[in-house]
Amino acid sequence: MKKLTSWDLYFQKQLGDPEIRGLIDEELESLRVGIQIARWRQKKKGLSQAQLAARAGMSAPDVSRSENSPAQNMTLGTLVKIARALGRGVAVTFPARRSS
Known about the structure:
Blueprint: H1 6-15, H2 18-44, H3 49-56, H4 60-68, H5 70-73, H6 76-85
């Protein structure tokens, strides 16, 4: 087994804090949205960010921000524009959270 570094120990301690864990979970969830957008754009549709932006009525930098840091400015309206431009819909779910 790999010896834990001081960073590993610190990180494990931080994960034990419910508030920190919640922030991490939120960030990971938002990154999943950006990854899904990028995958659909690249692999399923073969579009560049500029092409997707034109289809969605957005700027290419806005598409880039949506893919790389969606938590900063992703609104449901933006998500719907992108999804429609990719020929997709949007489904919002509220899955049960694991207890901290």
